[in-house]
Amino acid sequence: EVRSEFLECIRANQRGTLTTEPLAVTYTFGEDESAPNTFHFFEQYEGVEGFNAHTQTPHFAAWETFASSDPFTKPPEVTFFSSAPASES
């Protein structure tokens, strides 16, 4: 029901992240090909400091306001991971 608002909000968050956050490396999202209206995000920051800085921005606050309006059919799942070191040959 709120797909257009969701896309507008997340595009603004993506744009703000990539243009104003020096510790942001990657911010991409897309719709699942087999589950319509299911979106996957990949965000990468330089360390936990980068993610924490992201959560303090106006564009993230706008996302939080949207998300707090209960627009989802199930809560978003957020996971974190550490990159594995490159293998040595």
Notes on the structure:
The protein has about 90 residues and is of the alpha+beta class. Helix content is about 40%, strand content about 15%. It has a two-stranded antiparallel sheet with strand order 1-2. Strand 1 (about 25-30) and strand 2 (about 40-45) form a beta hairpin. Helix 1 runs antiparallel to helix 3. The model has no long low-confidence stretch (mean pLDDT about 90).
Topology:
Elements: H1 3-20, E1 24-31, E2 39-45, H2 47-54, H3 58-67
Helix pairs in contact: 1-3
Q: Count of helices?
A: 3
In whole angstroms, the N-to-C terminal distance is 51 Å
Radius of gyration: 15 Å
* Largest sheet report: 2 strands, antiparallel
Strand portion: 15-25%
Average pLDDT value? 92
Number of strands: 2
**Uncertain parts:** none
- Could you state the order of secondary-structure elements as H and E? HEEHH
Kindly state the percentage of residues in helix.
40-55%
Helical/strand content category? alpha+beta
Going across the biggest sheet, name each strand in turn.
1-2
Query: Tell me, what's the shape?
Result: globular
